[in-house]
Amino acid sequence: MTERLSAQITFLKRADDLKTVERANVLLDQSRPENSAEHSWHLALWALVMAPLAGPDVNTDRVIRMLLLHDLVEIIVGDHPIHLSTDWESVAKAEHAAAVQLFGLLPSEQAEEFMSLWREFEADQTSDAQFAKILDRCQPLFQVLCATQPRPDHLDVVRDNLDGGRAAYLESVFPYAYRHAHDLLANEGVDTNAFTNRLPFLTEADQLKSVLRASRLMGSDRFENSAEHSWHIMLYAWVLSEYAGPNVRIDRVLQMLLLHDIVEIDAGDHPIHGQVDHAAQAAKEEAAAKRLFGMLPDGQRLAFVDLWHEFENAQSDDARFGKAIDRLQTPIANLETGGGSWIDYDVTFAQIEARVRPAIEAGAPDLWAWLEPQLTEYFSASEAACV
Questions:
Q1: How many other CB atoms sit within 10 Å of the CB of residue 264?
Q2: In contact, 229 and 16? CB cutoff 8 Å
Q3: By C-alpha distance, which of 356, 361, 328 is closest to 229?
Q4: For residues 94 and 372, what is the distance between their CA atoms, to the nearest angstrom?
């Protein structure tokens, strides 16, 4: 098991680099370029929220998985904006080679699973892939159109994309989105429909990309944000799903992790090793859940709030595994970067055992058994260096 798990963790650590791949799009507040990891998280959220608008033969859980991994190849080949002149045949070959390299880090059957799903997305032939592609076409459009003061050059790209570009086909396959995009471009009135009723929540969710956490990226000194963190732990849960209990439903776990930090838009992030008034924080998060999920139609509002509460309470098998994964990612990053946030917060091994171990052991004891010797070695070496 140790060799297999180590290979899976190697893949997950390499995936961290997607957080440093910049896209042509910018955040809604225009503060910086969007990166491909937080874009992938946002697309997964689009899939969950827009699921009622998908065809009856679309499996939303498969769509979410496609969108989690669809841009991983950009770690090697980078992002290629659609409005620039590009040799797309050469890009496709480079991306295929990148997929083989990246997914090849995983155990063979997982590598085949990921490669097959990535190819399915790229081929755009199945109902699941087609819906995933539709969302991948939509999100960048509304990332521009829903900004308070969108850049004129970005508006030009959107206009060209809708009028004969890659997004033109939305007129026939996703007409609500196509019409709404044109209405926003023309500053015309907004229709009320199943699409426009869900878009404000998805727009508000963009703010999670600006909520900074205490942990840093593995390949950069900047702090991780909560959107890219959510994407990464969803990937963790998927890759490490074999270490969950037999009753765990991984797709429900992925949905929990997709939603679990959205309340931080209002309540902020509070490091596990920081000083926090837990009662006050819980009250802030409850209010945030009420406001944010309250932007959705009633059925989804109730379902998302229930799923968020289930994760917070950690009473179900699904929630316990989700909590375990949420606790696992940061220690792995800190070990990779020579201590990371443990140094910033002067964390001891006793604190790790008190605040991290219980959650990981409760949801995925094999993962704690793998992690513990590495933690012991790190903290023993740190203590020796201080003597």
A1: 24
A2: no
A3: 328
A4: 39
Strands 33-35 and 212-216, sheet pairing? unpaired
CA pair distance 260, 226, nearest whole angstrom: 10
Beta strands 22-26 and 33-35 are antiparallel
The H-or-E segment that residue 304 falls in is helix 298-313
Q: Left, alpha or beta for 181 (phi > 0: left; psi -120 to 50: alpha)?
A: alpha
Q: Concatenated DSSP letters for 238-301?
A: HHTGGGS-TT--HHHHHHHHHHTTTTHHHH----TTS---HHHHHHHHHHHHHHHHTTS-HHHH
Residues 6+ apart with CB under 8 A from 198: 49, 50, 296, 297, 300
Q: What's the whole-model pTM score?
A: 0.96
Which two structure tokens, joined as six digits, stand for 135?
A: 């969302």
CB within 8 A of 202, min separation 6: which ones? 42, 45, 46, 49, 142
8 A C-beta contact, residue 339 and residue 288: no
- 275: which 2 tokens? 């000083």
**Furthest-apart CA atoms within the chain: distance in Å:** 70
Write out the two tokens for 271. Answer: 């490091």
SS3 state at 340: coil
Q: Whole-angstrom Cα distance, residue 258 to residue 300? A: 14
314 Cβ contact partners less than 8 Å away, ≥ 6 residues apart: 320, 323, 359, 362, 363
Q: Are the C-beta atoms of residues 120 and 129 closer than 8 Å to each other? A: yes
Least Cα distance to 144 among 224, 192, 206 occurs for 206
Q: Report the C-alpha gap between 243 and 5 in whole angstroms.
A: 9
pLDDT in tens, the chain (387 residues): 689 999 999 999 999 999 999 999 999 999 999 999 999 999 999 999 999 999 999 999 999 999 999 999 999 998 887 777 778 789 999 999 999 999 999 999 999 999 999 999 999 999 999 999 999 999 999 999 999 899 999 999 999 999 999 999 999 999 999 999 999 998 877 789 999 999 999 999 999 999 999 999 998 889 999 999 999 999 999 999 999 999 999 999 999 999 999 999 999 888 766 667 778 899 999 999 999 999 999 999 999 999 999 999 999 999 999 999 999 999 999 999 999 999 989 999 999 999 999 999 999 999 999 999 999 999 998 766 664
